[in-house]
Amino acid sequence: MHDRAPPVTSTLTSPSRTAGRPWPLRRILPILGVVGLIAIGMAGTIWGPLYWSESAWAVPDDLWATLVAAQRFLRLDLAGLYIAPTNLVSFPGTAVILVPVAAIFDLAGLSAQAGSQGAHPVEWLIAGPCEVAISGVALFAADAIAEHLGVSWPKRLLLAAASATALWNVSVRWGHPEDAVAIGLLMYAILALSRSRTWRAAWLAGAALAVQPLVLLAFPVLAAAVEPRRLPGFVARAATPAVLLLGAAAAANWSATVHAITSQPNFPTIDHPTPWIYLGPLAPHLSNGSVAAGPARALAVVLACGCGLVVWRRMRVARPTAEWSPEALVELLWWTAAALTLRSVFEPVMVSYYVWPPLAVALVAASRDWWRLIPTTATATVLTFLSQESWRNPWVWWTPMVTLLGLTLFFSWPRTARSATAQALPEPGEEFAADGAP
C-alpha cells in the first residue's frame, strides 16, 4: 500500500449531463427491473406451482406475520408489535415500511392473517406487487450509485438485471422487503457520504437501521469514512430513528420487545443449521427448540469493526479531497459488502435470503468494469438459486454458501485501487461547505 495516493481525476458523471433528464428516464432501468420482477414473481407464485403438480400458490409465508405487525402499527397498537402471530424479531421499522400495504388492506376489508390461510389467498394479489415495489428501493439505490460513477448504460442494464434476479430471493421468495429497504437506504447513505453530505448520510443510515438492524455490520465502515470531528453528530443522528421506534415499542410492552430483540430466536429444525450450531456459546438453545442468534450476530458486529479499522487506516494516509474519487466510493462499497458477509459466515441458523445483502452491494461495487461485473453477476445468480436447496446437513449447505460469497467478494474487489478510500476524507472546512450542517 502506498503511503500517499496520487491525485485522482474524478470521472464521475457530470450533473449537467443528467440533471435535465426526467426522473423516469434516468431511472428507467430499475423501473423496468421492478416491473419485471413483479410480473415474473406473481406469475411464478400463482402459475409456477402447476409445473410441480401443486395447486396452492407459492406465496412467502413470512410476509403475512409482518403485515399483521404493520396493521397493528397502523392502529397504534404498539403493545402488539412483538406478540404472536407477528414473529417480529427486528426493529419496528420492519412493520413501518408495510404500513401503506396495511392501509390498503384495511380499506379493502382484508386481513393479513387470512393471507396465511387457504391455497389461493386473494390478499397476495395486493401484497405481492406492493412489497416487491417497496423492495425496489435497493434497485434504485444501485442505479443511482452507478450513474454517479459514470457507469455506461450497457453495464447499468446488466447491473439492474442481476440485482433484480438476486432481489427475487428476498422479496418474492421469502417476503422480507425490510432487508431490501434497509440495504437500499444504506447504499443511498454511502452515496450521500461520497458527496460529503454527512448529515444526510447519517439520517439515511439511521432509517436503514430502524428498518433492519443487519446494517449495524456496515456502521464501522461508514464511521471510518466520516471526519472525526463530525463522528459524534453522525452517530447521534443515525441512532435517533431506531431509538425512538424501539423506545415507543418497549414503553408499550417492555417484556415482549426486550425478549424479541435480545434473544433473536431462530429454528434449526425449520431453517438451515450451520456448523456454529455445535458451539454452545454462539448458539444458546432456548426452551422452544430454537436457538438464540444474538451472540453470533454480536460477534459479527465486533469483527465488522475490523473492516472499519482497515478502511480508517487506508483513509488516513492519503491526501484528502472534498469529493470522493470513483475508486474511493467503489472501495468503500466493497468493504461494506465484506462486512455484511460476516452475518452469513457466523450465523448459527440461516435462511436462504440471508445471503442477499452482500450480493446487492458487491454487484454495485463491480459495476464499472465488465471483467468484474460479469463474473460477479454469474456468482451472485448461482448463489441466489443454489441457496434455495433444502440440504439439512450443516456443512453441506453452509460451505458452498460461504464459498460463493467469498468468490463474489473476490470478483468484485477493485484491484486497481491504490489507497483510494483515503481520498474520501474532506479537507477541514470543505465538508461544512458541502452539506451546510453544523
Describe the structure.
The chain is mostly helical and 438 residues long. Helix content is 62%, strand content 2%. The chain contains 21 helices and 4 strands. Strands 1-3 form a two-stranded antiparallel sheet. Strands 2-4 form a two-stranded antiparallel sheet.
- Count the DSSP helices: 21
Spans with pLDDT under 50 lasting ≥5 residues? 1-16, 417-438
Query: How many beta-strand elements?
Result: 4
User: Helix fraction?
Assistant: 55-70%
Please give the largest β-sheet. Answer: 2 strands, antiparallel
Q: Which whole number gives the mean pLDDT?
A: 87
Strands side by side in the biggest sheet = 1-3
Feature tags:
two-stranded antiparallel sheet; 438 residues; mainly alpha; two-stranded antiparallel ribbon; 4 strands; disordered C terminus; 21 helices; single chain; globular
Draw up the topology in text:
Blueprint: H1 15-18, H2 23-26, H3 28-46, H4 61-74, H5 93-96, H6 99-108, H7 112-115, H8 124-135, H9 137-148, H10 153-173, H11 177-194, H12 198-211, H13 219-224, H14 231-252, H15 254-263, E1 265-266, E2 272-273, E3 291-292, H16 294-316, H17 326-346, E4 349-350, H18 356-365, H19 370-386, H20 394-412, H21 430-435
